[in-house]
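Quality-control log, excerpt.
Job 1 of 2 completed; input and output follow.
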Amino acid sequence: MIDAVLKYFHSLTAVMDLSFSWTNMFEIFIIALILFVFYKKFIKNTQSEKFVKGAFFLVFVWIMSEILIRLDLKILGVFFKSTVALVSLSLIVIFQPELRRFLGFLGEVDFVKQLFGNSAKNKQDKRIDVVKEIIESVKYFSKSHTGALIVFQNDLSNTYYDVGTTLNADVSTELLLTIFHTNTPLHDGAVVISGEKIISAGVLLPLTEDPKLSWKYGTRHRAAIGMSEVSDAACLVVSEETGDVSITVDGSLKKYEDLVSLKTDLESILGIKQVEEEKKTGFNFNNFISIKKK
């Protein structure tokens, strides 16, 4: 049996003519590098990762079937070989939409740019989309007078997020609108956002204890101010009564008359755009509005 296996591998090596040179080693390195980059960019930590592992298993079974046939175990070898062929054809049918999407991706003009592009730049583009999702949500909240309270914080050690309902979901307009809908259980609390993720919803924040605070500010504004007093968080709040949009930082509040300036400050808060007049708060206070009584 061992002699048959050795003869089989000897016949394979004779056909391949394995006379390696430095050129061959360089070619193998290039192939390995391409496969590694492709795996890291498009397969790692995705649903396709299990599919790739399954494909390698099928290759292993196919090699074993060839060895079994060479060892005169033809029935067993043909069985495994036929099984591999049948499963391979089935995978093509099952994953036909994914394969079509992949071929379409290969046909894109900026395929090489996406493959070898700057990952930091890709993350920044994703954050810009996060700002867009938030702006679209705030636009609806302000128009419909839907109360909302959103906390932006990278350091979650002093956030109270564990009091609410853990979500750990991507930021989206639809999700924010659902959370703050008046008929949902989570609409009264705050949403905590860190990076591109909604960490939790329905979070209870500490209220400010400032006795000089104007009477016109309700619970949401007091919670936003209180949270900004005890942490480095920036809190976005939409008034249910007036539809006004404001952001609090370091116990101070800035009211926005338009979404353009709001978008600029959100980009600064999320670290997307560094403003020239950046202060300790992390974003520019233009048209500052005092929240305290004169």
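Job 2 of 2 completed; input and output follow.
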Amino acid sequence: MGTYTTRVLHVSPQLSSALSIIRSYIIVVVAGVTGGILMDKFRYKSQGMFVAFLSIAIFSIAMYFTSSVPLLCVVVTIVISYMANAIKSTYWSTLGEAGISIEDTAAAISIISTIGLSPDLFVPPVISRFLEYGERIGNIEVGFNLMILWLAVWGFLGVIASIILGKRARKSTIKAKRAY
């Protein structure tokens, strides 16, 4: 967020730093607490995940159209950060909907953790290539636009995953009702 706000939105380094602190620390805590409260409002957690991933995809696309209005674009990036952190704080709540038994929870969490944390290994090199490409052609904004597109694509993949999870959850509910 810091590099984007200074290099593309032309926000002062001081304001950019303050926004990065808000995104990195305050939003994480707020989303961690309120994300769980919001997800509990949905009958199925997969529905909440669907809304969160769809929001990320839509707001990522909105970044393309709001970069000419820095304040609005900053709000859009904060919404994306909030939704991403709400997902991170609640994705364990979908284990039951996925049909994971209590006995298999530890194994499932270790596999999910490996998958869930793997982007920390491959995303920075990918994003840095996007930014290097933008700099190489003389337009850093192109690199950031590739990064935003990357985020939107992963948001839509999350939408698909939440739809699959939702179908599985509904099948499990139907099976459970038939068992009674």
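Post-run check on job 2. The mean pLDDT is 89.
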